Amino acid sequence: MNRFRYGEYDDGPDPLAPPYDVRAAVDEMGRDIMGGADPMRALRDLLRRGTQDVRGLDDMLRDVRRRREQVRSRGRLDGTLEEARALLDRALGQERAELFPDPSDDARLREAELDSLPQDTSAAVRRLSDYRWRSQAARQSFDELRDLLRREVLDTRFQGMKDALADSGPEDMQRVREMVDALNDMLEADDRGEHTQADFDRFMDSYGDMFPEEPTPRNLEELVDSLARRAAAAQRMMASLTPEQRAELQGLMEDAEAQSGMSQALERLSGALRARRPDLDWSGGERMEGEEGLGMGDATTAVQELADLAELDTALNQGYAGAGLDDVDEEAVRRALGRRAVDDLDRLRAVERELREQGYVEGSRNRLRLTPKAVRRLGETALREVFADSDASRPGGHADDAAGHSGEATGATRPWEFGDDEPLDVVRTLRNAIARGGSRPGGAVRMHPDDFEVAETERRDAAAVCLLVDLSYSMALRDLWGGAKQTAMALHSLVTTRFPQDAVQVIGFSDYARELPPNGLAELSWEPVQGTNLQHALLLAGRHLDRHSDFEPIVLVVTDGEPTAHLQRDGSAAFAWPPSSETTAATLAEVDRMTRRGASLNVFLLADDPRLERFVDEVARRNGGRVVRPDADRLGGYVVRDFLSRRRRAG
C-alpha cells in the first residue's frame, strides 16, 4: 500500500501561485499610448513612475541622489594629513619639553635639529626616521603616527584593514605581507592561464578574514573587481586634494609603505589591478563637503561609494540607448538603498517580464509592440473610462454589461453550436444529460457538449458602423488627440464585444484617408502633414456601407477643422488654405451620396471656428444628421452615447 505525506512546499516559487496581475500596468501604459507614446516609451515611463504598490525608478533615483549628498557631506578628504600633523606636533612638543631642562650641548644640538625640520610633514617624518628620541612619550607619539600611516595606507587598498590592524604586532604585519605576495602570485598565475578555482579557495581559507566586505568574493574575478574599484577610488581621492596636500600625503604614504616592507609588492598589485580594469575612472576627482576630516581609508570609502552611486544613477536613469532593468545592479541597490528597494526592483522586473509572458507585449526591447490581447484590454479600459466619465444621472446613460445582439426570447430552443452566445437553456440541457445516462451516484451529472441547448432569441438588425477620426496636425496642437484615440478604441471595443454582428470600421484622415486596423488603433499617432481630407474619408466609409448594404448605416465624424484637401482624378490629394471651392464641392458631393444611402452623419465638432461651423451646418442641412459640440475631455462619452442611442433605434 502506498503511503503519502503532505507538507508545505519549500522548493522554490509556488507552482500553483496565480500569475502576477499586470492588467493595471497595461492600463497605465494605455494612458500614455492614448496620448501618443509608442509602446516602448510607455513601458519605460511606467517603470519610471512605478505602480500603486511598487516604487518606480524615479523614486529610487531621487533616493540615490539624496544618498550622494549625504556621502558628500561626511567631511574633508585631508583628515589623515591633519591627524599626522597633529601627532607630529605632539611628538615634537614632548621632545622639546624633555630637552629644555637639559643644559648640555647635546640638548641644544637636538633642539636645533628639530627647529630645522621642513614644513612639509612627509619630509619631516623622513628626517625623523633615524632620530634618537630622548622623550619616551615623544617616541610613542611618533610610533603612533607611523602606525596610523601604515594602517591608513593598507585601508585605502583593503577596506577594513585599519580596524583589523589596530593594536597589531609584527606578526600581523608579516601576515599582511604574505597575503599581498600570495595575491600577486595568484594574479600572475592567472595571467599565465594556470589559476584554478581551487587556488582561490585556498587563498580565501588563509586570508579571507582580511576581506570583510559583503558579499564575500566567490572567485578571483569578483575579488579583482572589488580591489580594483577601491584602488581607483584611492587614486580619485588623491586627485581630489590640492596639489600641496597631495604631494605631502603621497610622501607620507611612500614612507609608510617603505617602513612596512611592502613597497614593491603593493606597486605590483596596483599595476595588475589597473591593467585588468582600465575601464574604471582612475583620475577623476570628487567634491567633498563637511567639517570633519576623514582618514585616508574612510575618504577612499566615501569616494568609492560616490562612484558606485554615480553608476547606479546612470543605470536607474535609463537615459542611454538599449537601457533596461537588467542593467541595474541589484547588489548596488541593496548597498545604497536597502532591502525594500531591491524588492521594488524585483517587482518592476516582474511587471516587465509578465507583460511578455502573459502575452501583452512582444518584440525586442527597442522595437516593442502591443499584442492583440493588449489592444483588446486597452479598448475595454477605454470603454470603462468613457462610461465612467458619462453623465450617470442622464436617463439611459449608464453602462449596460448585457450583450447587445440578442432580442427577446422566442420560447424555442436548439442545440448549442460553437460560437453561440445566446442564453443557455439549463433545464433542457440537464434533461438531455440525464436522458443520455450522464447521471452519477450521489446526484452528480456528467455533461457532454451535445447535451447543451440554447434559447433562441429574436434577431436584431445589424449595423454598419463608420467612425471617421481627424488625424491632422491641429488635433495634436489643440491637445485633442488623446481623447479622439480613446474614443476610437472605446467605440471599437463596444461594437465588437456587445454587438458582434455589426461591421465596424475606423477611418483616419489627414491629407489622405485610410482604414485603421483594430490592432493599429493603440499605436496610432497624429500625422504632421497638411490637409484635412474628409472627402476621401467619406468615400472609404461609403464603400464600407456598400459592402453591408442590408445593415443599418451609422456614420460618426470627429474633427476640429474644415476640409482643406480632396482627391483629384489622378488619385493625388489637392491641398489649399483657405479651403478651395473645389474641396468644399467634392466633400459635399460625398455627403450627398451618404444621404442617398440613407446614412445620416453625426459630426462631433472640437473647435470653435466660424467657417467650420458654417460647413458642418450645411452638412447637417443636406444630410439630416446632427452637429454635436462636446466637451473635448468627454468626447468618448458623447460618441458612445450617440452610437447606443442610434443602435437602440435600429434594433
From TrEMBL:
Identify the Gene3D superfamilies for this entry: von Willebrand factor, type A domain
Q: Which InterPro entries match?
A: VWF_A, vWFA_dom_sf
The record's region (Disordered) falls at: 388-420
Identify the residues that the record assigns to the VWFA domain, covering every copy.
Answer: 462-645
| Protein name according to UniProt | VWA domain-containing protein
Upper lineage = Bacteria, Bacillati, Actinomycetota, Actinomycetes, Streptosporangiales
